[in-house]
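Support case: user asked for a sample of complex input and structure output to validate their parser. Sending the pair below.
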Amino acid sequence: MLLIECPWCGPRAETEFSYGGEAGIVRPPDPDALSDGEWADYLFFRANPRGAHRELWNHAQGCRRWFGLERDTVTYRIERSYVLSPAGTGTPNVADNSVDAGAGSGSASGAGNGG
Amino acid sequence: MAAMQPNRLQQGGRIDRTRPLTFSFDGEVCEGFAGDTLASALIAGDLSLVGRSFKLRRPRGIVGSGAEEPNAIMQVGAGAAAQPNLLATQVELHEGLVAHTTKGWPGVRFDAGAINDIFGRMLSAGFYYKTFMYPRSLWKLYERLIRASAGFGRSPAAPDPDTYEHMNAHCDVLVAGGGPAGLMAALAAARSGARVILADEQNEFGGSLLACTESIDGKPAAEWAAGVVAELRNHPDCTLLPRSTVFGYHDHNFLTIAERCTVDAGSSGDGVASMRPPGEGVRERLWRVRARQVVLAQGSFERPLVYCNNDRPGVMLASAVSTYIHRYAVLPGRRAVVFTNNDSAYRAAIDLADAGAEVTAIVDSRPGGAGELGARAQALQIPVLAGHVVCDVAGRRRVRGAGIARWDGDCWDTVRSTIRIDCDLVAMSGGWNPAVHLHSQAGGRLAWDNSQLCFVPSQARQAHLSAGACNGRRSLGECLADGLRAGREAVSKLGMEPTAVEAPAAATVPENPIEALWRVPAAKDADRCPKQFIDFQNDTSVADIRLAVREGYRNVEHVKRYTALGFGTDQGKLGNINGLAVLADILGKAIPEVGTTTFRPAYTPVSFGVGAGESVGPLYDPVRKTALHEWHEAAGAPMEVVGQWHRPWYFPRDGEALHAAVARECLAVRNSVGAMDASTLGKIDARGSDVVEFLERIYTHDVGRMKIGRCVYGIMLGEDGMLMDDGVMARLGEQHFYLTTTTGGAAHVLGWLEKWLQTEWPELEVYLTSLTEHYSTIAVAGPNSRRVLESLGCDIPLDKESFPFMAVRPAVLADMRVTLFRVSFSGELAFEINIDSNFALAMWERVMEAGKAFDIAPYGTETMHVLRAEKGFIIVGQETDGSVTPVDLGMNWLLSKEKDFLGKRSLRRPDCLREDRKQLIGLLSSDDRTVLPEGTQLVEETGKPTPVPMCGHVTSSYRSACLGHPIALALVAGGRNRKGETIQAVLPDREPLPVQIVAPTFYDPRGRRQHV
């Protein structure tokens, strides 16, 4: 069970969260202008990478906030969690208080990475 | 005593001779002592035959002394509390224990299935796959017979009467294993101030120290261990968990431990475990531990050697022999042959001789024999046959002798001439495998150690360290030092200062190196010689692995699955490395090139009970009750579970059955008045300066055009265009809306709205608040509903002009503040009273009181369903299944043409435009009385060659009391343009029934009744 650092509540067990898929998928501003193929790209196709992956999580059993997480899909190592930018779409908010799980308090880093 | 325990030693051991215990084994009364395991008590009673093998039904005896035991699998206890699949070596003996062997019919001593052994050559790997494929029609018969003969033990048929619980814990350092390395690691961490959990699977801490003759710091090893445990117990931040197996190492240093709590009060223990009589208290506890650092100190498993008939009862691991002698004071044999390729087994020979057994020979495959232990053995006059091997064992239910041949490494011919030595015990050692299970579960890598011939832990992936024997350390001194190192390292990694701790002094005995001996050749070819077992539990032999390779399997994971090597409780503990080595030899590869199979949780078998914990029976799932629940119960309403909500299903009067009650309730609403508790609907308060813009993007209708004080029926779609949820939404103010959702969709919808607000449109100022539990909803429906409300006293006029259909108003009703909705889910004149949940019961009782004049009927979910189906109103999740668009449902009127909304673009996808999509229609049974089962498949016509293509299915179906005939809603391909046509409903056990396609609105199709 993953230990996830909520940017607002700190490290919590995975069972408190719900998964929201790949981050950074931007809803097209004018869907009507898109061809069926382009719309299907937005609707169905996701990167599914082996390795680093930016994704959305919701602290559903906690503060109910959505936030971003950088997670390795092979090792499950969490690089960091971050507050979403005001621009939306799951991009990191550089100026805001993004949390680096690797350099955070001991309890967060100890369990997240190891080795 | 002597008569019942012929193999019990007169002195020594950690048993309590003042506390004899009686137990039963396969119906026979046996005796043991407190401190025994079931296995040691069986050996004391000279009960050497404890099981039959899985496939060949060969007689089997006890091989090991711990988690590695492959044969002594017992059913312990009786009736509902019985536990199958327990290893006798891990069962603490207690008074009155009842144990049964799990294999053999009619019994373990005479097993009819043993005929399998005679035809063993046919029962090779893959036998079942190959044999039972044809003819396919007989598979159901084969399956029944195979299942009857498979498995270990029988699952109890009645519910488990015992209690189990889950415990969450956090610690700085979790130490798995309480042997020499684990104790040192825990000591180093605890003295440095770390929060420590030390878990060990046995009843006493100490591991190998409890059964060895060595000394530490000048004291006997067990005494030293007791001192360390006493100190740890005094550390306030140190939790000691005996009888606790760390069985799973999951992501992010999350570990699971199964603790056996209920132990008979008479059994010996160290006083840490809570002692409760069986059947009382908690039987097992699951610890869910998040550890910052983990020290793995689980020790190592001795390997068997592979030679003909190496599975006969009386063939044991050498270390197990020592453990039985020292810890349990039982002597597993009187005349022993010790067979080894390394020094450690010499200890067993010395222990046997010291205990009074005759060791007829130490058979050592190495021409040079052993180091210092060899000299000690010779000083005891034990004959050592260096450069020899045991190549066969005589005896069937018990070892009677060993065939011994000269061996010089690569000359396979020498084994053709053997001499036989009589014996009743063969103690064997093929080297040691570190218990790398948890390290591997954690994602750690393994490295092949060519000097010790085993896999050792290498790079870790999570925050864990291995120490002691499970880190490839051999001698006691090395293990203690390695444990200390790991404990200090774990503390340092936490950023704490490790306290200086001296490594205790222990003698290190110089040893000669192990030499590889993966298989002793036989006089005949491996396929024709007596079986050479690699995995005792699964009857996997050398010949099976050769066969797998011959049939094309090369990958170790494939060979494992084809031969069942390492399946069952074994999980690679005993036979794994021997199997890999034999496979490598056949493939002409080095062992590390072949690789290992994957280790997965659980390390040892875990009961279903401890997995479920408290989540059984009424605690299986949370129960949500409305504010009116007690009233419903008092009225005798059976409950229907919807999500986690318990909703009244119907309200029987005078012992009515379901259909009679529902018919009466339906007629009451249609003809007079009824009331329903609709509080479970999701309710969301939405406000903010951008709330209109936000809801425009979510809902399909034109939200901005809604006037304050008006409601609409609204739907929301997924981005794929499929209907996601529906409900009435009301505009309470310029920037204030009240949204209702389906009962089951409430949480999901709120999460969905928040996702768009937070991730996609954070620039919108909108605040969402769940009000589901704060407000209760009472629906009052029927032509007399207005009169009921008026008689309660209402501060606003309720007539048609002042308070029209789909209006919403704040009001004071029966002196209570409410929000009144004029909405209808029944098609009748109806009101929904939204009220603070604290006042809901008072309001409900007032409604019932005022309704008496009109014979008001409380009604439940079933009547609600019938009434809405008569009107053709859908239920999300019943008429829809995630593949239904609003167009399919005939809801085009709800789709705004003037704005974008979520899912709108998808409605133009070619698949959504197909003419033959399934569309919502109504169905009438041709016989006017058959209520079609929901889910009934619909076909165009029958009689065609099968399979007949299906054109739709029934989604809702009820008998309609007010119409006098059954009605059904269905999704039918292209159904909207097929009204009047007849199709066939396929019914179980009877002829297909013709059904007519009609419009999905059966009652008051123009909707006049709700507008009055």
